[in-house]
UniProtKB/TrEMBL annotation:
Transmembrane segments: 39-56, 63-83
Protein name: Uncharacterized protein
Keywords in alphabetical order: Membrane, Transmembrane, Transmembrane helix
Lineage, opening ranks: Bacteria, Pseudomonadati, Myxococcota, Polyangia, Polyangiales
Superkingdom as given in the UniProt entry: Bacteria
Amino acid sequence: MMLALTIGATAGVIVGALGGSIADGLVGRAAESATSASRLLAGIAAFAAGGAYLLGAAGHRRAAILLASGASIGVATWLVVVASRAPVRAALTLLESDRAGLEVVEVEGRSWVAHRTLGFRLPQPSVALAPAEDIVRETSDRAGPGWRDVHQLWAFESSDRAVTVTLDLTRADDVSLDALDARARAAAGPLRAQGIEVEAQDARSEGARCGSARFGAALEHGGRVEARVLAFEAPTSHRAFHLVATIVGPAGADAREYLDEIVVPCGRSASE
């Protein structure tokens, strides 16, 4: 099922990358999301409202919409960086093959966006979105040395910058539910630290060697964060991974349904 989000009118959302230059995409930013979450986010929002390049790209939309666009960049970066400050361990660094681009594939007559070697995949919607390289760049710059070694971040945004989707891939010691719960708590930690009430679902097994946990939170002025954290093993190497898929957008969107459709290998071939 395609993720469809309502922003005034209904806008199609998300996914994909084609070949070496990611052509379609996942990720965006939230309308009115977390403008009071931190001074950092407020500063980003103010910059967005005053930016001439954003005014031009947005067709001279109201400053409130631009504020929302700028703030959601901060939310996406903030969630990824604060939740993932951990010592770099050589054994858990990502390989170049783990960083392979996403590609469109057909599975049982349905179009998906899939990782070339690790086997996870996401439904391909009918509306292509642009990569958000600024989110990737800012996240990497703020996270500090060593972050790039242990993370692969894909970020995409809707054309009006109302919706942001990020995929954060990391290695894991194992695919245990305890480790998955710990990763989910870390990912949601920045929200709790700001006094935002988080709705969490404990990790559960979804197959022989995979599982998922999830959390969500309402943000001020109608924004919302929805995230699904997945644990799985690579089909051939059996190395363990965590994938945090986060959607920041307006409340009322069917983000949860979209996240539920993400598929990871579960002790079988990814095409089954």
